[in-house]
Amino acid sequence: MNQLIWFQRDLRLNDHTPIHRALSQNEPTLFAYFHDPQQAQGEANQVWLAASLSKLQTALQAKNADLLVAEGEFSQAFERVLTTYNVKNVLYHFELGEPYQTIQQQALAVCQRLKVRLTPFDQAWLPPESVLTQQGNPYGVYTPFSKKVFSMLDGVPKPEGEANWSNFQPVTLENHDRQLPSRLKAIANTDWAKPLISQWKVGEQAAINQATHFLTTHIQHYPERRDFPAINGTSQLSIHLHFGEISSTRLLESCRQAQANQPGHSEAIQSFIRQLIWREFSRYLLFFNPGLINQAYQSKFNQIDWPEPDDQVVAWQRGLTGVPIIDAGMRQLWHTGWMHNRVRMLVGSWLTKNLNQHWLVGQAWFENTLLDADIANNVMGWQWVAGCGVDAAPYFRLFNPVVQSEKFDPQGHYIRQWLPELAPLPNQLIHAPWDAAGKIKQQFPTLAANYPLHDPNLKQVRLDHQQRVQALKMMT
Ligand code: FAD
Q: Which atom of ligand 1 approaches the CA of 366 most closely?
C-alpha cells in the first residue's frame, strides 16, 4: 500500500503534519503537486509556484524522495496518479476559498470512487470552532477576536520540526512525472517573470532565513517603522507564508522564543504577532463565511450597482492616476509582485472610493499581480478598504492620499524610487504635483510629457462619495 502526500500551499518539509503522520506509518510514500491551469491562482502566483516547486523537488531529492508534478484537469490527473502508483491513503493540508474548495471536493469524489482514504489536516493556529464569543458565535470584529486568540496562545500546537526520515521508503516515479510540467514552465520563463522572481529568494530555507533575520535584526523597530513604505520595516514574509514555505505555527513559536530571549523587545514582537493574528482572522472569517470570496460581509453592499471598469481603472493599474503615492504603489506591485501594506490600503481606497469601483475589481488585479495573492487575506483586505467587510474602516471614511503621502513618505523617497520621472521635483511638490502644474510644465517638460498633472479634485471626489454614503444609508 502506498501513501501520497498531496501538497497545496504547504511547500515545505518541516512542521508538516501530513509528512510526520505518513513517515510514522513505515509505508512507501510519494509526494505530489497537481497543477490544473484552469483552477490555478493568478499569474504572478504561478511564477513563484514554479520556483518553489523546484526548491521542494531539490529538498525531497536530498531525502532520497522525489516530487511528482502533474499538470492538467485536476480530477483526471489525480485519478491517474492514485491508480498508477497504487495509492491507498492521501494526506494533505486543506485550504479555504477557491479554487481550493472545488479541487478538494473533486479529490473527495475521486477517493470515494477508488476507495482511497483522504486525510485532511488544518494549518490554523486554533480550530475555528474553539474561538467563539461568550454567546458561542464566531467573532466578526478583529479586536475581540485577537484578544481571545492572545488568551489562547498556549493552546496553539507546537511546530513539529523535522520528520523522522530514517525508515522512509520511496516510490519510484515514472520519468515524465519528474519534470516541471510545460505550462507551469512556460509561465516561469516569460520575459516578465524572470526579472520579477529574480528579486526574491524562494523556498523553505529562504523563508526560515528571512524569519530569523527579521526577528533578530529588525523586530525592535517594527512598530514605529511598519507604516513607512520607503523603509524596509516589515518582515516581507507574506509570500513565504502564503505558499506555506514556513508554517505560521513555527513563526509564532519563533516570536514567543524571541520574546523570552529579548524581553526588552516583547512589546514590538507582540505588535508583530498582532499582524499574524490578522492572517488567522482572515482564514477564520472565510471558514465561517465561505461566500465572502465574492459577496460583501455587509450584505447591503451587494445591492449597489457599480459602474463598469473604465480607462481610470486602467490608469490605476498602470500607475498613471497622477496621484504619486498611488502610482508609486501600483508600480511597486508591477515591478516586484509585492506592495507595502500602508500603500495597499491607499490604492484600495482610491479605487473603491475615489473611482467608485467594485472591490472585486481591485481584488482581481491583486490576485493576478501579487506574488503573495492569498485568497483569504486579499478578500479581507479589499472588503476592509472598501468599508463593506467585518471591521473598522467604515464606508464613509476615505483616505486623503496627499495627507497620507506627506505623513508616511515625508521625504518622497518611496515616490522617487518607483516614479523616477518625478525625481527632480522638490519635496514640497512631490505629493501633489498638480498644485504647480504650470511651473512643472515649464521647468520639467519631459516629466510633464510623461506623467499626468491634472488636478484630481479631491474635494469634489469627497463630496461625491458622501452622496453615495447618504444613498447607501437609505438602503435597507
Ligand atoms: P508584516 O507587517 O511583516 O506582517 C507579517 C505577516 O502578517 C504578513 O506576512 C501577513 O501574513 C500577516 N499580515 C500582516 N498584515 C495583514 C493584514 N492586514 N491582513 C492579513 N494578514 C496580514 N496579504 C497577503 O498575504 N496576501 C494578499 O493577497 C493581501 N492582499 C491585501 C489586499 C489589500 C487591499 C490590503 C489592504 C491588504 C492585503 N494584504 C494581503 C495584507 C498585507 O498588506 C500584507 O500581508 C503585508 O503587506 C505583507 O507584508 P509583510 O509580510 O512585510 O507584512
A: 28
CB atoms within 10 A of CB 46: 21
Sign of CA dihedral 316, 190, 176, 204: negative
Nearest CA to ligand 1 atom 49: 236
Q: 348 in ligand 1 pocket by Cβ < 6 Å?
A: yes
Q: Whose CA is nearest to atom 14 of ligand 1?
A: 275
Q: Residues 171-204: pLDDT tens digits?
A: 999 988 988 888 899 999 999 999 999 999 999 9
C-beta 282 within 6 A of ligand 1: yes
Q: Are 59 and 13 in contact (CB under 8 A)?
A: yes
Q: Does ligand 1 come within 6 angstroms of the Cβ of 363?
A: no
Burial of 278 from C-beta contacts in 10 A (0-12 / 13-18 / 19+): middle
Three-class SS state of 374: coil
pTM above 0.90, yes or no: yes
Instruction: Tell which residue, 131, 177, 141, 147, has the closest CA to residue 34.
Output: 177
Residue nearest to atom 33 of ligand 1 (CA): 381
**Does 237 belong to an annotated binding site?**
yes
* CA 344 to ligand 1: nearest atom: 36
Q: Report whether pLDDT(452) > 70.
A: yes
Atom of ligand 1 minimally distant from the CA of 238: 9
For the stretch 98-126, pLDDT in tens is 999 999 999 999 999 999 999 999 999 99
Q: Given the DSSP bridges, would you call strands 169-170 and 67-71 parallel, antiparallel or unpaired?
A: unpaired
Mean pLDDT to the nearest integer, 277-298: 95
Q: Tell me how many helices (H) and strands (E) the chain has.
A: 23, 6
